[in-house]
Amino acid sequence: MPLESCMILLDNSEFMRNGDYIPTRLEAQSDAANMIVNQKTQSNPESTVGVIAMSSSGPSSGAELLVSPTDDLGKILSALHGVPFCGEMVRNGKDAVDIAASVQVATLALKHRRNKNGAQRIVLFVGSPLTCAEARSFIKAGKQLKKNNVFIDVIAMGELGDNEPKLRELVDAANGSNANEEGAERNCHLVTIPAGVLPSDVLITSPIFRGDAAPMGGDMGGAAAAGGGGGGDTFAQYGGVDPNMDPELAMALRVSMEEERARQERVSAAAAESNQEEKSGDGEDDAAAANNAESMEGITAGVENDEDALLQQALAMSMAENQASSTTEETTAAAGESTAMDMGDDDDDAAMQMALAMSMQGESEEKTDAGLDPAFVNQLLGSLPGVNPDDPAIQEALRKAKDESEKKGDEKEDKEE
To answer: Which residues cross the membrane (predicted)?
Structure first.
């Protein structure tokens, strides 16, 4: 943390005897102030802390400076634990504690600090009701702090219904005119702690303890509910170590736990991104597979269509061939029948002519002197296609030829004699 001079303002009025904070408001306030002092002094060795009691005994009964800003931790802790109950409930129309006057005293103390470097801050504890003071006095005090470059953190313990609106006016005025703008950085904070909750459990997670600037709406009014579970939740945030007993070890454990949590978040994010990429790759593969399947279906359908077309064409050609074949066969059969009929007639004439020629040739040859052999002639005529040797016409022709042959043979024999 940067160098800082801090004044802690404690409420030590009679209202702080109330037991709604364990064990009492005053002791719970003292524990929370002790934790803040340790955090301020240990975060930066040059930081200084002072203590003011807002009620005192004596004629003034006003704010009392217990310790000026110092780096002596012993003096600071001694002042914190030695604050007595002082002041009346309400005196002369004034509240038990005068917030505006106490803030003015703290501002003067910071102005006279030894180390002028670093920021100036006031930590204000309020546990008494603020019924008499007007809101404009808080606004005026806040503007004065803003003018002097002094930051203020307010911790409200009890009487929240009456005190919270006025204390918020103080904080908003100290933050400046941009305090109500969305996302505006706020260096002054208001933390409200409900009854029954340890203030240290709420403050340890608040911007007051962390020392960072909170955005608009970052006041820790709702943080108290988160810390309402008691010290168990707080110890869990620091690895089971009580930050009041060993702040350095608690902070080291907390930093280590936050780093481990950040690492796990990075690993989870990387794993989620990897899963997303795998899903995207699977989706692309599925899309490609679907496109391939559609292409194959189209090709198959085209092949099937082509096969169907070829089959139909083959059937048509086959039917045409069958029709042509049957037509050809019918034509051939008809032609054959006609030819056979013609050949039958022609063969008869040809056979007769052949027989006559042979008979005539036999007459001219010497070997036929004995006449034609009827068996030979019948065998010859039977070998001819379409010729019936038993045909009466053929038999008549053969008979005549035989008779003529015999007649010629007789005449030849008579001549020779």
So the answer is: none
What single-letter amino acid sits at 80? L
- For residues 203 and 31, the answer to whether their CB atoms sit within 8 Å is no
CA dihedral 48, 96, 219, 121 (to 10 degrees): -20
- Say which residue the tokens 């002791």 belong to: 27
Cα separation, 176 vs 145, whole angstroms: 10
Angle between helices 247-364 and 392-416 (to 10 degrees): 40
Q: Dump pLDDT digits (tens) for 46-56.
A: 899 999 999 87
If asked whether residues 9 and 156 sit together in one domain, one would say: yes
- The residue among 226, 244, 262 that closes a domain is 244
What's the pLDDT tens digit per position in 53-73?
Answer: 998 776 566 788 999 999 999
How is residue 378 annotated by DSSP? H
| C-alpha–C-alpha distance, residues 232 and 250, integer Å | 14
Assign 3-state DSSP to the chain and report helix, strand, coil percentages, each to 5.
60, 10, 30
Structure tokens, 128:
């008494």
Residue 410 has a pLDDT of 73
Domain's final residue, options 228, 244, 260? 244
Q: Write the CA distances from 96 to 14, 55, 56, 163, 254, integer angstroms.
A: 8, 7, 10, 13, 39
Task: Give the Cα separation of 97 and 167 in Å (integer).
Answer: 13
3-state secondary structure of 70: strand
Could you tell me the residue range of the domain that residue 57 belongs to?
Answer: 4-244
Query: What's the rounded Cα separation, in Å, for the pair 154 and 376?
Result: 157
So what's the pLDDT on residue 91?
54
pLDDT score of 9? 95
Q: Which residues 6+ apart lie within 8 Å of 290 measured at CB?
A: none
**Cβ atoms < 10 Å from Cβ of 60:** 9
Number of structural domains in the chain: 2
* Segments of the chain scoring below 50 in pLDDT: 214-235, 299-300, 303, 335-336, 338-340, 342-344, 363-371
Q: What is the pLDDT of residues 162-187, one digit of tens each?
A: 899 999 999 999 998 765 555 556 78
pLDDT of residue 125: 95
In a domain, 17, yes or no: yes
Cα separation of 179 and 168, whole Å?
11
Instruction: Please give the backbone phi and psi of residue 183, each rounded to the nearest 5 degrees, phi first.
Output: 80, 5
Domain annotation covers residue 221: yes
Residue 272 lies in a domain: no
Q: Cα–Cα–Cα angle for 157, 152, 41, nearest 5°?
A: 90
Residue 393, pLDDT score? 73
Residue 394 lies in a domain: yes
